[in-house]
Amino acid sequence: MMFRSRELLRRKWEAFSQTPFGCLLRLFVGRMFHGSSEPGGENLDLGMGVAVILLAMPGILVSLLMFGMYGSLIRFLRGQPAFNPFTSTLSDEYFFIVLSMVVTGAAALWRWDSIFLDRRDYTNLVPLPISVRSLFLANLLAIVVFVSLLTFVANVASSVLFPIAVLGSQGSFLLLFRFAAGHIVTLSLASAVSCFTVFAVAGVLMALLPAGTFRRVSLFARFLLAICLLALLATSLTVPQLLTRVSIAHAHRIAMFPPVSFLGLLRTVWGSGDPFLYRMAKAAIAALGFTSFVTIVTYAASFRRHFLAIGETSEGGALPRLHLRWSPSALLEHTMLRTPTQRAGFHFVARTLLRSDAHLQVVLAGMALGLIAAADKLVSAPHADALIGGKWPRLEVLSVPFILSYCTIVGIRFAFEIPVDLRANWIFRLWIDPDRHEARAIARRVLLFFTLSWLAPACFIATLWFWGWTTALLHTAIVILCSTLLVELLLIKFRKIAFTCAYPAFQSHSGVIALLYVLGFFLFAS
Fold this sequence. Notes:
By secondary structure, the protein is mainly alpha-helical. The protein folds into 2 domains: 17-312, no CATH class; 328-525, no CATH class. 74% of the residues lie in helices and 0% in strands. It contains 22 helices and no strands. The radius of gyration is 26 Å and the shape is globular. The N and C termini lie far apart (64 Å). Residues 37-44 and 322-326 have low confidence and may be disordered.
């Protein structure tokens, strides 16, 4: 009987997928996972299998770590034989909620350009005998399917492993099913809220801004959203303890906002009859309804305003191109860019970084990670309210420019490995003399310019304001020296013009290199 039902569903899906609307739906879902509005953006496509693994991996790793925390032998050795899974796991459940929201929100941010229909869709689909209404409904349904797939993939592993880790030794299937049901429902709805929030922000910007302005503003919107997601992840270390220290009135206010409100939804699904938890659950459901409603409304408005008017608009770069008589690059040409090769290579790499969405996303992601790491360093410091007092700056304050420098330099260095789809990039590969190694000199100047041109003045001014000339000069000089040393280390054996070569092949020691980057962060920031 089950085999017949599956066969019937398969036949119905095959018949639906061959209809015009079904073909559109498959096309739009596929472009959300594989497509890009930027020429050459397909080069960043990781493939469905790799994307699934990356989305599921955080939940798998964290769930496996929980086996050692909630195992019966570990609890016995700790002297904790009595164990209530519905109260003892709340802090871990909050971490899973936040992790799920961050993972799915980051995936939605990565596919930002593929969510809504673009110029290529207009060129290929509008001339076909397909109604505009069908295009609108198919892409709207594709957004729902995309959110559902992200939610399922990001949470399926932890929804199985974490309940087993907590209750695998209890011997009660009903208790395990009850715990898992609350975990699955809560994480799924939290992920959906995160995805719809990203889509709602994109829809609001598209509905309010002209096409050219939206293309430039959207980059900074993604940067701010990435910072918010990282800050949300950082709350997993502070919010559970904060709720136990603040007053009841303040705790009730905080509990009405996601992701804290999803703890109330979790306890409600588990069967708690507390009226306050029920209010929290209603707030969580309201957040899902609000974000999904805003997504639908703003998408309808942006579809009418942008997609139907694509034929009357022109494309532009990710950032506006400034025409100034004097610019920092002009100063560089007279001081640091001494040869024609260095000048041409520097302008090529710098303009690619500033005008390519894909490369800017990588660089801004590194900068966002640095900002959150620096903020966490300051907030978690003992006596954080007195950081800027005293005769000498504290170590937490001194480490901030090092954190920002490391994350920015590593982000730009990683972006160097992403090829750009420019028909003329072969000129640099043929022009550069391999024996003179000017590619390393170009990369060195780009890394130092995009990092120290803003970080060194900011570090000097901030330190000067609070601690005087001597400390400001010493601190800034050490930051510049260490950043220069880091650049030299990252450019060892660098022999190519950035963005002009294919992706580097995966090697057996790639995992070790990634671990060294993490260790390097802690060493450099200390």
